[in-house]
Amino acid sequence: MWDAGEGVFFRPALRALSLEGGRQAVNVNALDEVPDSSWFEARRVPAAEMSRGACAPSQLAPPRPWRVLEPKTDGVQPGLFIEDARGRRHLLKTDGAGTPERSTAADAVGAALMHALGYHVPCNQVVFFAVDDLRFPPRLRAEVEAVIAAATPDARGRRASLSALVDGEPLGPWRYEGVWPSDPNDRVPHERRRELRALRWFFAWMDHLDAREHNTLMVWRGAERGHVEHLLIDFGDAFGAGAPSERRRARMGRTSWMDPTATAEDVLTLGLLPRPWFVAREAHPILGDFATEPFDPDGWRSHYDPGPFARADATDAAWAARRLATLTDAHLEEAVRAARFADPSTAALLVAALRTRRDAILTRHLSGRSPLTSPRALGDALCLDDVAVRAGLVLARAREDFGRLRFPSSRGLAVSRTGERVCVRGVPTEGYAVVDVRVRGVPGPARVHLRDGRVVGLERPEGEAFP
Amino acid sequence: MSRALPVLAVLLFTSSATSPAAAQLRTTREAYDGRPPPDHTAEDAALAVPRALLAPFWGAIRAGHLISEAMLAPLGPPPSSMDAAEPAPPPFEVLPVLQLETERTPAIGAYATLRAAPWLLRGTFQHWDDRRLEGALSIQFDVAPRLSVLGRGFGASRADRIFHGLGWDAPADARSRYRHHRGGGALALESRPWRASRLRTELALARHGFEGVAWGGEPSLTAQRASPEGFVRGVTLLEARFVARLDDRGPDAAARPGGAIELGLTQGADLDGGARWLRVDATSEATARLAPEHDLTLGGWVTALAPTGGETPFVALPALGGQPGRLAGLLAGRLRGETAAVLHLRYRWGISEWADAALHAELGNVFGPAFEGFGLDRQRLSVSMSIDTLADDAHRVGLIVGFGTDPLVRGATVREGRVAFFIGSPPS
């Protein structure tokens, strides 16, 4: 309750009264990237490994029987804490009374996608079980029967999602704002962490509305000289969650629980402004309107802003787009395999929706800042990769590139392109140099700083005219 | 207290939320990777004075933030709203009640609900010094899924009641005030056979006492005019009521298109004065959906009271004002007569996930016995706008702004208005 009240009222009010202005993320290195930390790792997951998400191979298909330890007490969907035959513990959740397959699929696929994007998540997977797989004491019969009744039956068994309890000591949810004074490593205010600001676009992509602090977890890793790891958990409401009423469903993802600006506008205009939630849409029986709604990446809203989202700026969005561009169509197809839908057409629809929504984010946020990344110096050549071309948003042959030395002198540089790779030649190999590489049609250049022929920095100025 | 203030100030100043002042000082904490934070800009300098001016407001809200955290965080996370029916309401709730209304005594209080199926108990208490004290306790027992027995007891004393006289032409400047004491109870049987339709039989007994009091510079009723029937001696009303409503909408009828008709019959008696009467109420409304979250409703209400013996106490007469469908731009009890009719046009639209706004245009008035004096040119116009959450009375928050006019034949001059804000049930 407090989390909702805080997100709906206190945080926005305090933020407004603070007159914060535009403060950029601070945990960004000289190459405009987020360094690895207990929050994020810039991992590259091969497409073939996407479907297992954060699960180690040994964690897949937990051996039966499953011993029921206790019922899950919070949340809407019924669930159980279980221990598999190897002694590993999991949280078993069902789809409940909502859309069949969606919640369990979202939990597994959502975790796989967030893992590939670099976040720490638990090992989530869709499983099918038989009633006989469960071993439980008589006192838990009612809870177990409730879970069995809520688990969608299928030819493969009763459907559920299994979330492995993470190793280490759970310390509770982390906060989206401030730092945790008990953790001396926690030095960057969370609202100024780029990877948390960028969650706004990743959650928009998946339509993961429930950005509550309760869906986060801190875990103590290691022994005496360990560290706190920060996880995201529970993605069960992604991919078109329903709602108790048509009205609430129509607004989900399009406006937050409390949006004073939209409310004031709607009051003053008598509701005559065109709003996406005033338009009736057909809903897919499993994916709701996730696969059918027109997607506006910047117009998407979570239930309430946890803090970093409202502070996210174009640089954070561009970083999110570059991370998202690392997931190819093959990644998406393999990740969706984790959903284990009964009907392959549902999987195809989900892949198509993820692809369309990913491309909408990339199109929007790789066009406002330079899409050139990964600068590396090779003798007097400086090469970068064009993320937009790599993601298939534009064809390499449609690109026109320019190179210019800004420092120590100002002169044009020869430029060549091979597919997504753009190289300029004639870069000084001694002393300090600054080189601009620009793609026609994109407002600003990629500005690379070099010292003695080594790349030491990268900027992406916005809308700066080419000298 | 003097020691606590500096401690609170330090807590507020150094807490993890970004205080405008603390942000300026926390440079060592925010320094990352050896670089200074990019905050000390011209923008920061320009905002220093506005930030200082806003600091007290920030501090007040931050204090509320800390208090709410201490009180509410132990309750756990909010329920996920996904895919499921509304989470079951908690078995026990206590919620605040607040009523603020122009030209009325405000009230603060609490609303408590205890659910233990098939029993449902509700209690409400509202208070404001010695001018307003109200309490009620109701109990509902569900005999079957669509059949309930309801009991209610209440007691109230309010010194802000208004009386302008009886009839369609009661002038705006003839307002007088009185205190109304009442206490009693009711027993009802209610069946809900189909959608929002219902059949209800009720027997109510209440004792009413009155005294003239001045309020806010306005004269007491006894000083202004001859006392209406029953005012001096008080009355004890016994009423048997039967209501039948046919409504093709769901339980959240107000948020759906459809229609309803309702007929109410009341046999009443004043056990003290011996008067008897029969009252008939008829209501109809139809709602058309113009677009999602945009509805247009046309409705009407007609009521007629026919004495069957003696003179009916004024408090039992039909009254207008105070709520949508009853000339919401006027105060409750502004108009009284033996009969009344109101035509109501409502445009309602969604303004958030939880609230609607509505424009109400109403035409109506009270009249004499058997609609004596009725005429189109004797109608009054009421225009109001309301904002209301989509919730039951315990969880409602709303605002009503409106005005009412003199009768059309008197020029339809706007001389009365009303603004009300409430948490809980709306003022009446």
Description:
The complex is a heterodimer of chains A (467) and B (428). Chain A has 467 residues and is of the alpha+beta class. Chain A contains twelve helices and 18 strands. With 428 residues, chain B is mainly beta. The model of chain B is unreliable at 1-33 and 80-85 (pLDDT under 50). The chains are: A alpha+beta (467), B mainly beta (428).
Question: What's the quick description here?
Answer:
The complex is a heterodimer of chains A (467) and B (428). With 467 residues, chain A is an alpha+beta fold. Chain A has 12 helices and 18 strands.
Index terms:
heterodimer, A: 467 residues, alpha+beta, eight-stranded antiparallel β-sheet, seven-stranded mixed β-sheet, globular, B: 428 residues, mainly beta, 16-stranded antiparallel beta barrel, two-stranded antiparallel sheet, 5 helices, 18 strands, 48% strand, disordered N terminus
Strand order of the largest sheet of chain B: 1-2-3-4-5-6-7-8-9-10-11-14-15-16-17-18
Helix count of chain A equals 12
**Distance N to C terminus of chain A:** 54 Å
Mean pLDDT of chain A: 91
Spans of chain B with pLDDT under 50 lasting ≥5 residues? 1-33, 80-85
In percent, how much strand structure appears in the residues of chain A? 15-25%
Helix tally of chain B equals 5
Global shape of chain B: globular
As a percent range, the share of helical residues of chain A equals 25-40%
How many strands in all of chain A?
18
In sequence order, what are the helices and strands of chain B, one letter per element? HHHHEEEEEEEHEEEEEEEEEEE
Largest sheet of chain A: 8 strands, antiparallel
Roughly how many Å apart are the termini of chain B? 41 Å
List the helices and strands of chain A in order.
HEEEHEEHEEEHHEEHHHHHHEEHEEEEEE
Q: Output the structural class of chain A.
A: alpha+beta
Contiguous uncertain segments of 5+ residues of chain A: none
